[in-house]
Amino acid sequence: MKGCFPLKKFKDIDTPFYYYDTALLRETLRAIVSETARHEGFCVHYAVKANANPKLMNAICQAGLGADCVSGGEIQASVDAGFQPSKIVFAGVGKSDKEIKLGLAKEIFCFNVESVPELEVINGLAGQMSKVARVAFRINPNVGAHTHANITTGLAENKFGIAMDDMPFVIERVSSMKNVKFAGLHFHIGSQILDMGDFAALCNRINDLQDWCDVRHVPVELINVGGGLGIDYTHPNKVPIPDFKSYFDTYARHLKLRKGQTVHFELGRSVVGQCGSLISRVLYVKQGAVKQFVIVDAGMTDLIRPALYQAYHKIENLSSDEPGKTYDVVGPVCESSDVFAKSVDLNECHRGDLIAIRSAGAYGEAMASQYNCRPLPKGYIAEEMQ
Ligand SMILES: *Cc1c(COP(=O)(O)O)cnc(C)c1O
């Protein structure tokens, strides 16, 4: 089964480009909103780093989600797309003074703080601006997620967050500071997680930390569990919308919340991943010594995930229904790792065929580069092509 694409409209557009199925995005957003509405105090922030296309961000903002930013640029892009600062959270292991000042000036909802030196800088800058910054501590829960090693973030050895053992010291420090207010605890264990047991393990760790806070009478207003819900890269047509019900139910079942607490989620990939495809043209079909290569005009500069973490993306030849052949699909960039897939079955390929690389809405366009002086790929919105 192949996806549905407006092929006639694609004919006149320069390839490669990203195509976003905004109807699917809206359907995904409806699923998120209806599943969170079943649980009191659940708030979802969209992780902007997954895709900062202004049209997509605007649709996400319209659906009522907040934004999760990891840079000053993302805070500005979120405000520009219409997100209320009171729904913006700001994470990141290396926030610069300029970025912190922007967050303070916009009066964002919360800074997710990753170290004591950072806490001191935020306190100092907030003092200069006569503001009080709300802060949550990003705690490294030492929970391993069953995902690619490059995208686990919650292990003790990772650079992210504050070690659990340091928490008492940090909480003591914050209580003596005038321009930061401790709001709660933040976590993020990794990305592309499909095993709900990983999220349940995180909940158990959070429950322990909350007990610890209770004993010491440290009020915790919010719990931010980060993002990480995965998508089905193998079956984008059969499973276009992730299982948000299981995801939110897992948290509802395992998190022991205190009265009035809100739970914040930072979802990126699961919101936009399936709505985007990278559309490319076949330049050449080349018979190698042992393999057939399909050389397409998109490369790792347009979509780096396969080269960076051997990520799998389903590939479809949209122009051909001829019986399948086995190909390596590669890009034109001068790097051996510029390979989208090895030994995949595709309908027979010819020069000029249009190829869709699916499930590329998250960490695709956002990670594009200009290596080899290649232009950045453009993003087209389905509704604007009608
Ligand atoms: C990247 C990131 C997210 C989003 O992760 P997804 O896997 O795309 O849902 C959320 N929170 C933090 C802190 C992140 O770094």
Keywords:
about 375 residues; alpha/beta; eight-stranded mixed β-sheet; about 30% helix; about 25% strand; elongated; binds pyridoxal-5'-phosphate
Tell me what you see in this structure.
The longest helix is centred in the middle third of the chain and has 20 residues, at 196-215. The chain has 386 residues and is an alpha/beta fold. It contains eleven helices and 17 strands. Helices cover 29% and strands 24% of the residues. The chain binds pyridoxal-5'-phosphate (PLP).
| Average residue pLDDT | 94
| Bound small molecules, deduplicated | pyridoxal-5'-phosphate
Shape: elongated
Helix fraction, binned, reads: 25-40%
Number of helices: 11
Please provide the ordered H/E string of secondary-structure elements. HEHEHEHEHEHEEHEHEHEHEEHEEEEE
The rounded distance between the terminal residues' Cα atoms is: 23 Å
User: How many strands, what sense, and barrel or not for the largest sheet?
Assistant: 8 strands, mixed
Number of strands: 17
The unreliable regions are none
Which structural category do the helix and sheet elements fall into? alpha/beta
Strand content of the residues, in percent? Answer: 15-25%
Rg from C-alpha positions?
Answer: 22 Å
